[in-house]
Amino acid sequence: MFRWNAVVMDKNKFDLFLLGRVLRLAKPYRKIFAAAGILAVVLAPIAIMRPYLIKVMVDDYVFKFDVAGMTTVAMIIIGLLLLEVVLRYFFIYSTNLLGQSVIRDLRVKVFKHILSLKLTYFDTTPIGTSTTRTINDIETINTVFSQGAITIIADILTLFGVLGIMLFTSWKLTLVCLTVLPLLIIASYVFKEKVKASYQKVRTQISKMNAFLQERITGMRILQIFNVEEKEMENFKKINRDYTQANLDSILYYAIFFPVVDIISAAALGLMIWWGASHALTGEVTPGMLVAFPIYLNMLFRPIRMLADRFNTLQMGLVASERVFNLLDKQQHIKDKGSITANEWKGDVEFDDVTFSYTPNNDILKNLSFKINSGETLAIVGSTGSGKTTIINILNRFYEIRKGKILVDGVDIREYDLQSYRSRIAVVLQDVFLFSGTVLENITLRDSEITKEQVIEASKMIGAHEFIEKLPGGYDYKVMERGATLSMGQRQLISFVRALVFNPDILILDEATSSIDPETESVIQYAIEQLIAKRTSIIIAHRLSTIRHADNIMVLDKGEIAEFGPHEELLQLQDGHYRELYEMQFAQISVSE
Ligand code: ATP
Ligand code: MG
């Protein structure tokens, strides 16, 4: 028994803590919050006054045929009604304004937080989860303000106010009406629990359906190629059925609960009239009371009916807020403690005994040491999975290394301020990612300091200007999501211009593996030569022509350096990895060259 109590206590405490944290989000909007609170307090008595005035009108004026007095009271009632309408408008507006303002800020906060998380988070969290947090969950938090906390307090105030004035008018009649109260409380409690469970089910089904659709639409090509549309259709139908059922279940409870409350309130009304009428003759109950009490009863039952639902809404808002807070509390940032601002570098890069693993106990790079002198080009070759892309990832500080040091211009890269550090390095990734937007925006990434002239100059230098000009709209050509309407080679060229326009001191290029036609090959080759000229460059190379241009070649084998040196030198090595690779992969090309 004690244990059970303790658990309940803990849960309540925890919920209150959570509620407190949600309410604190409204701190910048305390004025609106206070206004809504005051309106809630003022509205309750105004609403309660009306039936009371009706009672006064009936008892003191109608039956005494005092037309003047009757008119006065009627005017007051109309005045109160108008006042209530105006105040209620402001109340609803202010609570919603509060909710919307809070979630607008929260979205910014969450997105900013997501932007700062290190890539390990994204490696292990589905995309859908991050979007759900920023959109659906935050939307639900709105209800804590618009329908939750303040409205619940307003309802409870009205409830006690109505009870108070009923007792004041006639405590006996009130008690007669309240005999049905236990029934009402039981019905509300059962309803609240049932609906809560079914809401949770609805939410689970929604996220299932979202995840299913998102993945299938992204992978549509594969579905169509492998002819599995019908099977997927069956899967979808099942998920859809479950979702519909969950919704119907939750509606069922409403469909039962509302009529039940109506029956209970009708019973209360019946009791009241039966008892009231039989006591009217003795003068204990006045006609005015018989007019006012049905209105009071209505005012009493409506909030009770709503309250059960409102507590659920609040609960769901809190569940959502808990998820959002969990994300906000994640401290998975790259440590940005460096104080040195990276200004123009000479571009010396040195790896000093670097060891790295993505997950514990699985070293991907082992004791790597090498140097690239300023202005030189290093080509990295090695079989798939040997760790080439990983070298780039850690040089960019996407991940933290476990052991050793990486130095740029003789300074440990952890000592540079992260933003300035990254701004001196440009990376062209293996698979080019384009955002929806114009070609120009994709090159500048909406950096307003880069002018269109600079972009055109860079494109001309790379040799991309010609093809971009020919696109409908030229630099304003609208790129569709992920660049689906451009060819691989075109996407590549755009990403080259993107790198060049930022004029980096160090250039990193992860060459695409896909083969391209000889004509594009020579365009790309020319572009790469322009990119690496006069700056330190690291190229993960798949093309012989690129490799030959490099000052040094590093052959990577399972995260270790197998060979290091210029092309001619490595070719001399008997049984060398490079020589083997060269003979297997490039011999044919070199014959034809
Ligand atoms: P490719 O030529 O195919 O591009 P690569 O040499 O670039 O290969 P890497 O991408 O560096 O290979 O991967 C090296 C190893 O690290 C692989 O075994 C891979 O499974 C692992 N790995 C890569 N990225 C991650 C990640 N984000 N989390 C965990 N392990 C990873
Ligand atoms: Mg790679």
Description:
There is one protein chain. The protein has 593 residues and is of the alpha/beta class. The chain folds into two domains: 25-328, ABC transporter type 1, transmembrane domain (ABC transporter transmembrane region fold, Up-down Bundle), CATH 1.20.1560.10; 376-386 and 424-592, P-loop containing nucleotide triphosphate hydrolases (Rossmann fold). The protein contains 20 helices and twelve strands. Strands 6-9-10-3-11-12 form a six-stranded mixed β-sheet, sandwiched between helices. Helix 16 (488-501) runs parallel beside helix 17 (518-532). The protein is elongated, with a radius of gyration of 36 Å. The site of adenosine-5'-triphosphate has 13 residues, from helix 11. The site of magnesium ion has 4 residues, from helix 11.
Could you say which overall geometry the principal axes of the C-alpha atoms support? elongated
CATH class of the largest domain: Mainly Alpha
Strand content: 5-15%
- State the major sheet: 6 strands, mixed
Q: List the uncertain runs.
A: 1-13
Q: For the terminal residues, how far apart are their CA atoms?
A: 86 Å
The tally of domains stands at: 2
Helix content: 55-70%
Across the major sheet, the strand order is 6-9-10-3-11-12
Look up the CATH topology of the largest domain: ABC transporter transmembrane region fold
How many strands?
Answer: 12
With helices defined by DSSP (H or I, 4 residues minimum), what is the helix count?
Answer: 20
CATH superfamily of the largest domain: ABC transporter type 1, transmembrane domain
Overall mean pLDDT: 85
